[in-house]
Design goal:
alpha/beta, 45% helix
Length: 285
């Protein structure tokens, strides 16, 4: 039997990509099972050789001299802060931002969320900071992590077409996410990760100060609007979002990624976008 190694390699890479493995974290392969196999291969009666005593132990140096460690010293990364501590730190940091540029700079330096260490870069926002319409999704995906902008993959292209259908584009809206760093493998952010990032999103909404806020998908809706209802029940309904300074009209709708998987729901999203267009027109008069 002849094996096509190139074809097998391509199929293996495709499998890894579908499983969310899309980044190499080391140059050399590591056989992590070697240590587990070694005792079995050596047998139950095998006695490991006793390591020779170091020279320093046989020839004791004078007490006034301190032995210096040889080689490089491994520096362990600092342990992440407890979630409640990280949330408090995020609230304090977000409050200090007087502008969107300051908020972005603060997020760039913020180390309270572990996703920062695994993401390629911060995905802050896209669009017009003075827009009357703001969209908030859940978290960046692979394409967004590479580009550094939200909604640039297939779901982003669908969002662009939906905006064009009501006479808008990215230059006339503002787009952000609850979590500004991509979770590994595009997994769902944990409740702790969402809670840590939420103060920055809330401050972002305050600084943009839109007339209409659109929550894309269930996670964004439940997080920002404090509801436990599912997106099929909340979409198309108007809610009130309080910034502390003013009341903003907010509407949940389906996430573009959901619409790609469920095209039949596009007609409902179209109704939502028409209602958003009507509300923006009424607010402008």
């Amino acid at each position: 039997m002849i094996v096509d190694r190139d074809k097998a390699a391509r199929e293996l890479i495709a499998f890894y990509h579908e499983a969310g493995v899309d980044a190499v974290i080391g140059e050399d392969p590591i056989d992590r099972l070697a240590e587990d196999r070694a005792p079995a291969l050596e047998g139950p009666d095998h006695v490991p050789p006793r390591p020779a005593a170091p020279v320093a132990a046989r020839e004791r140096a004078p007490a006034s001299h301190t032995a210096q460690p040889s080689g490089r010293t491994r520096v362990e990364p600092p342990a992440p802060a407890a979630p409640d501590v990280a949330v408090m730190a995020a609230r304090e940091a977000a409050r200090k931002a007087a502008s969107l540029d300051e908020l972005r700079a603060i997020l760039d330096r913020f180390e309270g969320c572990a996703l920062r260490a695994t993401a390629t870069q911060l995905v802050f926002a896209d669009g017009n900071p003075n827009a009357r319409l703001m969209f908030v999704g859940e978290a960046p995906g692979r394409d967004e992590d590479i580009e550094g902008l939200p909604f640039v993959g297939r779901s982003g292209k669908l969002l662009d077409r939906m905006l064009a259908a009501i006479g808008l584009d990215r230059k006339s809206v503002y787009i952000a996410n609850i979590v500004p760093w991509r979770p590994p493998g595009n997994r769902t952010p944990t409740p702790q990760e969402t809670a840590i990032c939420l103060p920055f999103t809330q401050r972002q909404i305050e600084l943009v100060d839109p007339d209409v806020l659109v929550c894309l998908g269930n996670p964004s809706t439940q997080t920002l609007l404090a509801t436990k209802e599912g997106i099929t029940r909340t979409r198309g309904r108007w809610f009130h979002y309080q910034t502390g300074m003013r009341d903003i009209r907010a509407m949940p709708t389906f996430h573009p990624a959901f619409l790609l998987r469920n095209p039949i729901s596009k007609r409902l999203a179209w109704r939502d976008f028409l209602a958003i267009k009507k509300t923006l027109a009424a607010a402008a008069t």
